[in-house]
Amino acid sequence: MLSVQRREFDEKKKDETPYPRDFARWYALDYFRRPRSLRSRRFYVTLATTIAFLLLSLATLAPALHKTHQAAPVSRAHAMLNQDCASCHDQMFQPVLRLFGCGQASVSDKRCNECHHGAPHHGKEPACASCHAEHRGYDVLATHVADRNCVECHGHQGGYVHPMDTKGPFPITHFNRDHPAFLPSVKGAADPAKIKFNHKAHLDLDLDDLRIANKKAGRDDLKGLGSKMACADCHQIDDERKYVKPIVYENHCARCHALNIGLVGDFTPELREAVVSFSKTPLPHREPAVVRAVLRDRLAEFAQRNAVVAAKGAPRVPRPLPWKPVTDEQWSWAKVQAQKTEELLFMNKQWQKHESLTQCAHCHIEKERPAGVPIYHKTEIPSRWYTHSVFNHGSHRTMSCTACHDKNAAGIKVADSQTAADILMPTLQSCQECHKGSGGARNACVECHRYHAR
Ligand code: HEC
Ligand code: HEC
Ligand code: HEC
Ligand code: HEC
Ligand code: HEC
Ligand code: HEC
Ligand code: HEC
Ligand code: HEC
Ligand code: HEC
Ligand code: HEC
To answer: Which of 234, 299, 319, 382 is the most exposed place for a label (fewest CB within 10 A)?
Structure first.
């Protein structure tokens, strides 16, 4: 009720009933024409609100409040840049263009390259940010690269041609659908190793028998081995637990295939001990020319120390041991002995069962023999097979070695392999059994491939 009405009402109240007779008079029918307080201030309220918001928005541009514009923080490795947007964003934000699915991120490769060397994979690189999307709160940025970023190039016919592949370009769109067989180990691929080896012969060995035989010969070389050889006796996983350490003769073969040589000829009983001790000291595992030199030195020394031959006269020519007076007679004895031993040591023939295990050619393949000393092929046992991808033995340690290595393209079980030429590397199908995405191990390209280092 308006004040005018109330006054009118109060006056009438004195001589009339307490209730107004005419309710219609209570209402001000022109109320909409009268000024109202809120409307009169609307303009100022709007203005104030706008200014407040503008100020607030401007305030977020202050470094400390930059974060307000992010959907999520940048990845952990970049956390120190979280406030410093300009370290990555060197162009205008393009929210509208991005809303419609076009328009690049406002981040140029130049900025990334200021801190990184993203080594090129191929001449035509997509933008860094297309693979390394930020503001997803990722812990690890590098491995969050979706397959579509790879399939973009590798997915079409002619997208990728492997130099070894004769069937022409093959598209790869998905690991479990159209990934090519692992070329380094497909049927027909060659094992680059130039060494003789026989997995079966070693895995079949009865080491307890061998121990007894060794004991009789006064040797005790099989410490730490069980009653059968295990893979780990020759193949140890490296310190990163990824790949297998290379075979090293000294660590893996020497205990059974020591390079000992005996002396040839008759020796007096007094010399027997010296002869045995000589044959027990192995030769160094070095180039044949070095082995020859060491052998001759040792023989000359033996002749001298044990007076094998009479020491007539003083040496005339410099000897391998110029500081020791080796006589002509001692030297020629040593040379004859060396020749006989070398005949055995450097003999080039296929090993027969129950022959001595010490000749070089027992394991090595001869290339040529200039001047009577053999030259062997470099052994070149590959330390990596699948060099265009990464692998981790540690992540698969719950599996037995043969669970993978028996499933090779040649179809040969490791324990049946009799030649180093067999390729015992697992096939694509053996990985696909587990690596199949949902419900299995991951199958993203980046699980097994690197992009930059290739
Ligand atoms: C380590 C580099 C890096 C830093 C630091 C960074 N960003 Fe980004 N930002 C990116 C990348 C990369 C993208 C593209 C992501 C995508 O395409 O999904 C992006 C996308 C964006 C977008 C989407 C729209 C557009 O135009 O790109 C906005 C908005 C944005 N960032 C804001 C910010 C703000 C604000 C900061 C600072 C508080 C910041 N970013 C800090 C790398 C960064
Ligand atoms: C101011 C320097 C700087 C800039 C700019 C920068 N980074 Fe980094 N980035 C780093 C540092 C520091 C690390 C962590 C140390 C490392 O691993 O090298 C890192 C790590 C990474 C990693 C690996 C870390 C992980 O979690 O996997 C990737 C991938 C990466 N940056 C990509 C990018 C991309 C793409 C851009 C451009 C949008 C970019 N960076 C811009 C400094 C920078
Ligand atoms: C086609 C996708 C793609 C593009 C484009 C790309 N990367 Fe990567 N990046 C990857 C993948 C996959 C990895 C993880 C595997 C690796 O290390 O190669 C990675 C890893 C990295 C790492 C971490 C390497 C490490 O050793 O930890 C850095 C840093 C990086 N990228 C920077 C860049 C920069 C800078 C650019 C732009 C010049 C770029 N990337 C472009 C896919 C890509
Ligand atoms: C811009 C196109 C392009 C993109 C994107 C691309 N690749 Fe490639 N990739 C190539 C080309 C071209 C080759 C052959 C390069 C050569 O032989 O010099 C190649 C080679 C390869 C090879 C085998 C040869 C080698 O040298 O290692 C692998 C594995 C590979 N890419 C994986 C990937 C993965 C994983 C991704 C996604 C993170 C990817 N590529 C993204 C174009 C691309
Ligand atoms: C007495 C030592 C010895 C034992 C025991 C042994 N290996 Fe080997 N292995 C070698 C040597 C030497 C080579 C390199 C020559 C070759 O390629 O055969 C090799 C090569 C390999 C290779 C890769 C090379 C190729 O040509 O495919 C695989 C895989 C392998 N072994 C698996 C095994 C497994 C699995 C076991 C256990 C069941 C095992 N090895 C037991 C000595 C051994
Ligand atoms: C535990 C002792 C032992 C170790 C360790 C050992 N071998 Fe043997 N190796 C033998 C015995 C015993 C034979 C004879 C096998 C037979 O009679 O069938 C043999 C045989 C061989 C043969 C001939 C096999 C054939 O039938 O063609 C080669 C080659 C060979 N070893 C190489 C190596 C190499 C290389 C290493 C190191 C990686 C090695 N061995 C480690 C005990 C061993
Ligand atoms: C029981 C087998 C075996 C016998 C016997 C053997 N080697 Fe080897 N040799 C190896 C293996 C395995 C390697 C590769 C691993 C290494 O370097 O230790 C090798 C490597 C070498 C190398 C290094 C270069 C290369 O090709 O990798 C030389 C040199 C060599 N042997 C010389 C000899 C000579 C000379 C003899 C005879 C006096 C001999 N070896 C006897 C197994 C043998
Ligand atoms: C999940 C399957 C898998 C299992 C299980 C496995 N390997 Fe492998 N192995 C591989 C693959 C894949 C490679 C090729 C690695 C590379 O070079 O990229 C390899 C390589 C090798 C090589 C050749 C040298 C090298 O590093 O490339 C040897 C030797 C080997 N493995 C021995 C073993 C032994 C011994 C065990 C048991 C302790 C074992 N592997 C278990 C898959 C497996
Ligand atoms: C018995 C199942 C099984 C088989 C077979 C198998 N994997 Fe895996 N693999 C796994 C599991 C489980 C992981 C760890 C979890 C994950 O990455 O999803 C893994 C992880 C990996 C990783 C990532 C390792 C890391 O820690 O970065 C690579 C690379 C890989 N496997 C390659 C292979 C290859 C190549 C083969 C075939 C020779 C293979 N795997 C066979 C189960 C398997
Ligand atoms: C489980 C592991 C694994 C996954 C997942 C995987 N690859 Fe492979 N890829 C390999 C192995 C192992 C090779 C054998 C060749 C080598 O590494 O040398 C190979 C070979 C290739 C080659 C031929 C390289 C050459 O030069 O021989 C290309 C290209 C390739 N992969 C692309 C891809 C792409 C694209 C994806 C994703 C769609 C993918 N791979 C997923 C393990 C994998």
So the answer is: 382
